[in-house]
Each structure stands twice: as C-alpha cells, then as structure tokens.
C-alpha cells in the first residue's frame, strides 16, 4: 500500500528522518512512535500528500504520490489531522457528509447511500445522537469522534491518523483503536497512526515505526520493535515491561530524586 524509498524529511537545519525505506502492506496496522518533535506528524502529512519530501519518494499502491490525481487520492487515503478548527456552523452529519465529496465528481448533491454511510459512521463512533448538532458546540472528545466518523465515511483503503485517541475517554480510546485494528483484519484496510500510549499501540498494532528525531528510525513487527530497551532509547526514558497474562505492559521506570 505504501512504499517509501530513501525518504528524507527535514525541519529547518534538522534532519528528522533520514533515508527511510519502508514498506507498509495491505491489511497492516502501524503505530508511529517517537518523542515530541521527532517528525511523526511531518511524516504522516507527507504520506497524505500534504508536504513534499526533502529527498526520496513515496508511492501509494505502486504509483508515486505526485502522480495521483487529487480526487482519486481522496478515494484512496483518508487523513485525520492532530487538530482542527471549525469556522462555520456545520452539523455533525454535514461534516461527515462532506467526506463523501470525492465520490461526487459528476453530481452536486449527496444521495441516500451517502446519508446511510454517514449515519452508519456516526453510529460506529457512538455519536449518532449528535448528528444535528453544530460541530462548534461539541466537546473535544465528541468532535474527535465525529472527525473519525468522517474518515470512515470517506471509505478509503488507507487511513492515516494523527493521534486518534486524542481527547477520548478511556472507553472510547479502547473502542476506537479496536475498531481500527478490526478494519485491518476484516476489511484488509491499512492503518498508519501516531500515538503516545505504548500499551494501546502494542495491543492493536501489527507493526511499529520508531522515530528518533535526528534522522534515525526503526521499523518492524511489534514483537521485534516494541521492546523495552529499544523503546527506552527512542523515547529517552527508561521503560520496563511487565507481563499481565498474555499482555506486555510498558511502564516508565521511576527515577528516585
Ligand atoms: N515550518 C517549520 N519550521 C521549523 N521547524 C518546524 C516547522 N514545522 C515543523 N517544525 C519542527 O519539526 C519538528 C517535527 O514536528 P512534528 O510536528 O512532525 O513532530 P511530532 O513528532 O509530530 O511531535 P508531537 O509528538 O509533539 O506531535 C518539530 O521540532 C517542529 O518544531
């Protein structure tokens, strides 16, 4: 689904990611992990086609990103930004319906199929009861779930999510992450998401990409890459693992003053 070849991303004089050659296959669920400022959002925006690489290339489905017509790209990848601002009085339903526009090049109005898809997406995110509400009146977590519903309604094989668990309460963090993992397993969708919760990432992801923020990176299956010594190095803080049944739980080591 995604193939990067010697991809290099910089911010000013800093090299964030150096020569990333990376394959993301259909049906995989990747977590991108790294410290604040490591370049995670910059990478995701580049994969979405919103930023130009400084060197190297990105292909989506065998085709270089720059060769994708915008409307076709919008039917292939959906992007959840880390933050958003709502300038106008759209309802939650209208916001989700807007995600159907890439399917309407030959007609102006959405059809009943679009309404059903949008309502289903709102229901999947447990915000169907908010469909008629002005998005500017929603709480942070409700607005986040409407934004994820819009992604689902966009119905793309590739989902790129910048901190999807942001602002969600514990129950919704778990249900949203499980839903993403299920989309990969059952519908062969591909997910690349950024997250700071190692335990959530470990429980739902098949693979992880670690970014050091100085160009270095490490990519691979979760069992190989999400190990305490490697995570400690990449996150700049000692981390221990404890086993709880089948689960590995990551905890930051307490440092005594
Ligand atoms: N236009 C710019 N000019 C200079 N530096 C920039 C610019 N845009 C981004 N940066 C820097 O690039 C670095 C990477 O930013 P990015 O948003 O990708 O980090 P991140 O890993 O997503 O961080 P976070 O976990 O805080 O969301 C940051 O240090 C940021 O300050």
UniProtKB/TrEMBL annotation:
InterPro entries registered for this protein in UniProt: AAA+_ATPase, ABC_transporter-like_ATP-bd, ABC_transporter-like_CS, P-loop_NTPase
- A Pfam family it matches: ABC_tran
Keyword vocabulary terms for this entry: ATP-binding, Cell membrane, Membrane, Nucleotide-binding, Translocase, Transport
**A GO molecular-function term, please?**
ATP binding
Instruction: Read off the SUPFAM superfamilies from this record.
Output: P-loop containing nucleoside triphosphate hydrolases
Q: Where do the ABC transporter domain residues begin and end?
A: 2-238
Q: Which SMART domains does the record associate with it?
A: AAA
* Xref: CDD domains: ABC_Iron-Siderophores_B12_Hemin (cd03214)
The function of this protein is: Part of the ABC transporter complex HmuTUV involved in hemin import. Responsible for energy coupling to the transport system.
Q: What is this protein called?
A: ABC transporter ATP-binding protein
Source species, please? Rugamonas brunnea
């Amino acid at each position: 689904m995604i193939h990067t070849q010697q991809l290099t991303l910089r911010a000013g004089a800093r090299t964030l990611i150096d020569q990333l050659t990376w394959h993301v296959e259909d049906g995989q669920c990747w977590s991108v992990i790294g410290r604040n400022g490591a370049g995670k959002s910059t990478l995701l925006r580049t994969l979405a086609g919103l930023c130009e690489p400084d060197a190297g290339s990105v292909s989506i489905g065998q085709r270089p990103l720059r060769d994708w017509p915008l409307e076709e790209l919008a039917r292939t990848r959906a992007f959840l930004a880390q933050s958003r601002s709502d300038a106008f009085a759209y309802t939650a339903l209208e916001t989700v319906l807007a995600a159907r526009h890439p399917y309407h090049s030959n007609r102006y109005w959405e059809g009943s199929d679009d309404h059903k898809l949008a309502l289903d997406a709102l229901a999947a995110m447990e915000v169907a009861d908010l469909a008629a509400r002005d998005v500017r009146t929603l709480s942070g977590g409700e607005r986040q779930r409407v934004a994820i519903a819009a992604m689902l309604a966009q119905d793309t094989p590739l989902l790129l999510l910048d901190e999807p668990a942001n602002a969600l309460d514990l129950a919704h963090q778990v249900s949203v992450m499980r839903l993403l993992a299920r989309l990969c397993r059952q519908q062969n969708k591909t997910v690349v998401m950024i997250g700071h919760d190692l335990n959530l990432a470990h429980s739902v992801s098949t693979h992880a990409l670690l970014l050091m923020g100085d160009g270095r990176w490490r990519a691979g299956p979760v069992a190989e890459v999400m190990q305490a010594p490697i995570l400690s190095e990449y996150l700049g803080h000692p981390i221990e693992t404890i086993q709880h049944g089948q689960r590995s739980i990551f905890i930051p080591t307490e440092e005594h003053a």
